Input
Amino acid sequence: MSDDMQEVDRAPDGTGEPSFHRILPTGKALMIDARSPDGETIALLKALANETRMAMLEYLGDRVVALTQIAQELDLPPSTTAMHIGILERAGLLHTDLQPASRGLQKVCSRTYDELVIDLPRGTHHSRERVEISMPVGAYTSFDVDPTCGLATSSGLVGYLDDRNAFYEPDRINAQLLWFRSGFVEYVFPDRVPPGARVVSAQLTAEVSSEAPLHDLDWPSDVSVWMNGVRLGDWTCPADYGGSRGRLTPRWWEDNNSQFGVLKRWHVKNDGTAIDGVPLSGVTIDDLHLAPRQPIAVRIGVRRDAANVGGLNLFGRRFGNYPQDLVLRLEYATAKRVADAAEEAGEPNGS
Output
């Protein structure tokens, strides 16, 4: 670990033991921003609002099952089963494929996600505000990576494969995918919180996967994130995903390469850090020492001394499954908003 990296040596229970532990994967998660819902979000939520479709998702689990078997096991007519499967597929909750059977082809189904996290709309009576900053994956300010490594735009490779110098290429700013075996890339986000406001939480979302030769669905890698030099903890990514094309992956990219990742959310609050809602460490928002009008350094990588050095793929908005870059969300409270909320609730505001 370099000199500018810190570990917060405090457990949530006050024992003084290091508070870091690896979070093992529980499945693929989808983050839904329902604050400004679009057509796709509404279709997804409507698709879930049906007992039969929920029973289908529960029945599938992590298996690949033929449509005819689903109909038989759930005691549904084939036409009804096909209708519900179509709704779930259009909502992005299922994948379907045609596979050879004893008589021609049969449609098989698999579940896309194991977990949904919904960010609900916030009205004018909410005492907190937020700012979001989207950072292209190629806009890193520093790096230290080990091969295998490389970068790709939506139209081709940047520089040469397994060449660290490629990360200096001017065209790297257009990268939509970057990968490395170990090391890190670091980004500097501007502070757009209004003067006088107090940051109460910081959240980073990114689409990531492990980095294996070609792709490998059993390839664990311990992914670490740092904010302002403070390591938030390790999350074990289970795989370098492939076998089916990413929704946004450009056509020129070969089928046997890494195709997509999982969208992960690191969330630092007053009571510690979580990833997708699962406690990760005792690092709090105060530990980040966020100073007014000062930039925020965000580093993501795989430590060379990690238990699972399985590399990292970092996806941009035109690669993988999610149309987003790295997104840093800062939630803040202003004295006026807090006072107004307390007044509406009938609480004393100290005046």
